[in-house]
Amino acid sequence: MATLVGLDHARVYTFGNVILSGYRQKVELPTCDKEQAGLIRHAGWIGSLCVAIGTTFLLYETDYDAEDWHGNSTAVLFAVWKTALDAAASDLFRASTTKNTDPQTINFFCGNFGILLLDSNSRSKVLQVLQKMIEVTMVRGAQSGGVVTYAPSRGGNHRGCRTRVVNGKRTNLAKLLISKLNRNQARQHRGRRTELFQGHTRFATSSKASLSGTHPHQWCPLSQQTYWFLSDDGALHKRVKADVEMYITHNGDLDFLDVCGVTHAVEEIQTWLERVLHIPMPAPVDSAAIAGLMDLLRTQGLWSSSVRFGCVFGRGDATTHCPVIDRPLPTVHQQQRIAALFDEVLEEVIKEQQSVGSKYLQQESSGHMQELRERVKSRVSAIASSDAIFHCLGLNEATDFQSPGKLEIVVSSSSCRDLTVALSSSGNSTALGNFVSCTVDAFFDNDLLHATHFFLANAKGSFGLCVSSSLDVDKEVVVAARGQTMSVAFYPSTGMVCFGSEQAAVKAGLQLENEAEVEYHNGVPAFRVDLDDLGGEVLRLSFSKSSSSASSAAPPTSLSAQAKGYKSFRIMECDGGYTLRGTQVQESSLLQPPFHKRKVHLQDNPLVLPIPPTVEDPVGADIAEIPHRLNKIQQDWRNFEGMNRVTAWYFMRQLHARLLEPPANPTVGRGMKGPVDILVTGCEVSLWAGEQFAADLSLTMPGLNIVTMSANKVLGLVGQHFPVPQIGHPFAADTEHLQFKNCLVLLVSHSGGTFSSLAVANLMRAFTSHIFVVTSEWDTQVGRALRAIDSGADAASLFRSRIFSTGCGFRPAEASSISLAATHQLLTQILLYMLHYMSTFASPEAREAAGYFSAYEVAQLEGLNVACISALEDIVGVDREHRSVAMERPDAACHALRRQGATWAQHVLEAPVVWIMAAMYIFLTVAFGLPPATILSSVIMGVPMSDRPMYVSIISGAVDAVLYIFLPLWMSILLRLWEGRHPMHRLGTRTVVVGDVPWVAQSIEAFLSKLFACSYSIASLNVVSGNPVDHFVHRHTHRVVRGSLLAVGRPDGRLNALVTAEGGVNLSVNQASSIQSYGVRCESVTIGHNPSKLSLSANHITLRDSRKRFICERQSGGNLLSKLYTLHSKSVQKKLEALKDENDNITLLSRLKSSVSSQALNKVSSNQQLKPADEEYIGEQMTERFSDLSEVALMQRQSTIQHLYESRMASLQRLVAFMVMFHEMGQRVQDFWPRVSFGMLGYKMDRTHSIMRIATTASPIPASDVRGRMKEIVEAASLRKAEIIIRDALLKFRRVRASKRQNQQAETTKKSGEP
């Protein structure tokens, strides 16, 4: 069949294929297209199946005796059917037990991270580091991934070996990629010391996840070209056949490209590249277009590529290169003929100069390099000006040029194969000279650095870029950043350089560095440098053998390195004799500090946290660490020298100064229509935690104008040249940006690397310098962007800390648990500090402008905050010292939570368990012929089954049929009765409805849905959420069915401020639980601190609190709400009576005023450190001081504190309780599959299908306009300021002139009135 479809007969019938077909049941065929492959594959299994059927038919129809039939015929049948099944499995279903060993052949089995390794001693562990980098980078998305390495080729340079895989829904991309890379590397020849691993994990944004769209990308395949290179002695040499190919890895999006001052979309650029490069587009993704552009731009040492560059970019003005994408271009053959001329001229010039002993392109004689360049230009121009140039180039005529002095290359109408250079009669020499100059300059200058810089200068989008070439991989690699982060870590002791888009990923080599025998190589610790992603930066890493006589200056690889002022510097030296140098190009005028001043030491740096070790259950480990981490945050906050306290002090200094500023519009004052005081922004769970913080801050400081807005909304409103309308939100692009001037911005990003949050951190610098972030550690991408605000400032900048850190570090689990809880706790600490600062240090003017709490009330909140840790220990079952306390506390809440999670896991696993039970039932009854009703009838009648009456056989058969028809139903009922669950629940996928305050409900919905994102469809669930005191009933009660799972968090109704909130929650739960069908309701579970259980709920889990009691909890039993009504009515009666007497009224008002005065109960104001109030119950000191106040007045005085307790402490405890319960539920479902499938099935609940814990691409608002918008906003502000100054000066001038005129008129009148 292979011969019939057109494959080479000699390559098919080989000795190797004969051996393979017999030993491994496979053959290796030469490369063929998809149609040929399909014909061969399907012909194999169809032919084998036909042979098996024909043989069986023949044996059955032929008359054999019994002995022969049971002997040879059975063996024949077994052989043919085994062959047919084997062929179907391998060729039809492509199942195989062997591996493909050659990517260039098709086997028919009859069936932005990277490492630059300079020290070969570390090669044995480099793949471990690489796998760790992949695992960390996967948080950005891991639908597919790839790595390219280079191996020496026969041509004297290198060839790329690309490894790419598309990840499955439940497979591990890091393991898949490293496994395939190991197999590919086994075939590579390791003949060099330096080694590059350039990789990428992809989250598709412009196309579906496929192998063709997976990085690393290349446009032009491997080709052999004549290559001129610089030898070690500085001389220029020629290599006749060099392997040429390029690879790029790109994180971000290419949106547009400026060509000749005209902006073109990426689709137009892709079509243009197909014409320019004469190669079809390899993949319909934007990153492939970048690879094609780099093929076009990197031309150094290649005359064919340089001629192509000149044909595209050459024009009349030699200093301006302007491509025209619709211009006709020469063929490849014509370009090669032109390149041959340039090559011959260069050889002649070099031979002439070698005769006099000169060398070119030497460091000591850059003038000779320029002289060589000019000689080639003049020699080629001289040849081209004569008639011989047209004969040499295959040109047959010269026509008039459309525009004088301009070069245009067109296809002649008289001959499609001839190239015509059309020059005007007045500008022949000028146009031809410009073409020659452009080509020669590209040959000498356009290395990787220049090509990457040229691309970024004209591209629009976001770019984290790494570029490598087979011609340069033994001496340099280029990384670049703009709009996307890129970090480079240097490890001198191991000779390793790690680069990647994720800061945490480049710390993967830290463990290997710490294990080195020498602590610091040459006294230099490992360090990291982050490229300027805002202004744009290109960094070339050059490496070469060290030389004692080498000067400190880096030898330029092109004239452009000197002419364009590229910065070159030494980075490090490592064992093996290699020196690493860097060449830095900053694209924007927004310059970062010098390279050496941006170093972040990775070793012995308490602010840089290591990557956490890999654990089997990341989600469970994170939840168990919550009490410890939150306790560490509280302890750190009590440390005056802690970084969080320094940041809080600077934050409040800026807020205090803003409060003392006069209102922009005195008639409006502060409020929603005035300027924004604090902007709180973030994404997803970070935003939800920030929204709750902003609500609590508005409650305690009502005078502040606090705006909470998604980072995507901020980016869409003020970060785009064409704003994104925010439909349904009270924000407008034409007015909102005017209110951000000098406001305080609080970014909440628990990862510190979210795309939109990072873009907003840069964007808001155009409005204000008061930008702060709440994140997981000091060393994050957003933190680095904020530190750049104060770079180069005075010594006072050391105290301008802008980063609040939870200390959680990098957490790979996509279901956010500890990072969210720690973020909420840190925001609580910030709120308490703000209240403490306002009550203790703020001026009376600032207090009046913002509003404040007394120091006594703040101390009460601090006591509740400290007690929260003990409550969390009981919920999690692990104390703050990492010790398990579950066994010591049999009544701990963690036991009830896990039991409930296990029960709900049984609901989810019901379908697969019933399927297994049904499969066993069918197998036993069918395979052994033992239907239960048939057997039972035979046993009852006492006769064999064959002797039963006909009607008995029919009836028993009908009963068995009914049992089979309703097999899932009665199996489910039996299983439910066995497990103690209600037997009448609805069959099918379960729905979990979560009800609580918004930030808890939304966060738990995201948490639970991510836990089950990779679950098998037969054991999946739906997750929704709602606010029980708002829209919960309207959104979800119409969807309640038998067996719906309802989990609701209840506020503590024992507190007078929360009694109505709990009443609303209870009403919603009862309304949902009262809906029934066949007498069955939904299964509702409530979680809260109030031990009372609702009558209609299936279960209630009580959370133990360790706090002190409030005044309302010291009252005797009974209904609290009815007591409040009674006390309230009595209090109103007394107030009305007091109002009858003016003196009593004044006394009452003065008493009420003193009760809210900050001095009345400010017993802790003298202490600068915030401590819990020393009292037996909350409000004891207030009760003693105001003993004549009524009970309702005292309880109402605690309403705000109880509100804050609910929003900051109690809701946090319910959040963690939900996490413990749902983690147990997800863990049981996850562990079920490996047990029942003997390890063949399984998934990890800490990841999802998309694997995107951090949204690091446009999601959904791009940031390509941020840099331009920053300049526009600053310029617009300067223009407005200038307008105001000019207007004021003009008004002042007019007033002065009017005053002078009035004085003159008065004097004139006075003089005219004199006698």
TrEMBL record:
Keywords: Membrane, Transmembrane, Transmembrane helix
Top-level taxon of origin: Eukaryota
Residue ranges of domain Glutamine amidotransferase type-2 in the record: 110-413
InterPro entries in the cross-refs: GATase_2_dom, Ntn_hydrolases_N, SIS_dom_sf
GO BP annotations, alphabetical order: carbohydrate derivative metabolic process
Transmembrane segments: 908-930, 950-978
GO MF terms held by the record: carbohydrate derivative binding
Protein name per its UniProtKB record: Glutamine amidotransferase type-2 domain-containing protein
Organism: Cymbomonas tetramitiformis
Lineage of origin: Eukaryota, Viridiplantae, Chlorophyta, Pyramimonadophyceae, Pyramimonadales
